[in-house]
Design brief:
14 strands; 6-stranded mixed β-sheet; 5-stranded parallel β-sheet
Length: 271
């Protein structure tokens, strides 16, 4: 069994339970793993300011991989790197998305911007627990702002599946396009993926892929699960994620993260 020295955890539907909390068992497993010398971090599609409180709760001190890998930043605020979309590309994507009339989020300087209130936007804000900046025109806001970290389109699962095909045809190879949930379509810089960010973090720690474990549930977790020496899919993961994983654990409400850390990190280190 590999000697795991770095664990990367997705948040929603992975470490977080349905009520968006971390279970006592998961907290204990993470803290035990760290005490045994294994580093733990997050690799999430969430905004940095949305992910940071969970890292503080767990006492993590590694850089957090946020925005699907577009922003990597320590809990204390030190930035490792930021890979935003170019303003030109972001503008083209917004122009492409607007005719669909789906809800759109844009993220600038770790702030959330929406053009209008909607059920999809309200659901997102409730999950992320960050303030929302409502603007009259997303295109105008984009033109007057620094480059955005990510763009997110929200709608029903069938609509997002169809949009995924359309936007891949229009922008494939120019940007990173993925889904974090069946109804969330994420668009980021081509080099901003969880797998690339995790590989960079591992290199900075002088670790090989074989010393890394990644745990996730959705399509935006695929490349980090494929990269890691031990790629773990949650019991509630999408079928493609389970197919790519070396191990399938329990679901997020049954302590799947804790079970995997106990199995591959804690029990291995008990002599």
């Amino acid at each position: 069994m590999p000697d795991i020295k770095l664990v990367a955890l997705d948040l929603d539907d992975t470490l977080l339970r349905t009520d968006l909390t971390i279970s006592p068992r998961a907290q204990a497993a993470i803290k035990k793993a760290v005490a045994l010398g294994t580093a733990v971090t997050f690799a999430t599609g969430r905004m940095y300011k949305s992910a940071r409180p969970f890292a503080v709760e767990l006492g993590l001190d590694l850089p957090l991989i946020t925005y699907v890998g577009a922003l990597v930043k320590y809990v204390d605020g030190r930035e490792v790197y930021h890979r935003p979309l170019s303003l030109e590309t972001a503008g083209k994507i917004i122009d492409f998305l607007l005719p669909y009339k789906y809800h759109i989020n844009i993220y600038i300087n770790d702030e959330l911007y929406m053009e209008k209130e909607s059920p999809e936007g309200a659901r997102y804000a409730n999950i992320s627990k960050v303030p929302v900046h409502f603007v009259n025109d997303l295109r105008e806001t984009l033109q007057a702002s620094p480059a955005p970290t990510k763009i997110l389109a929200l709608s029903g699962a069938p609509e997002i599946a169809a949009l995924l095909a359309d936007i891949q045809q229009a922008f494939g190879g120019q940007v990173h396009i993925t889904r974090s949930k069946p109804y969330f379509l994420e668009i980021s810089d081509l080099g901003a993926t969880k797998g690339q960010a995790l590989a960079g973090l591992a290199r900075s720690l002088n670790l090989t892929a074989g010393q890394v474990m990644a745990i996730g549930d959705s399509w935006n977790d695929l490349d980090m699960i494929e990269y890691a020496g031990i790629g773990v899919a949650m019991g509630n993961a999408e079928a493609e994620v389970k197919a790519a994983a070396q191990y399938i654990t329990l679901n997020n409400d049954d302590d799947g993260v804790a079970e995997a850390i106990e199995k591959f990190v804690i029990n291995r280190n008990i002599k």
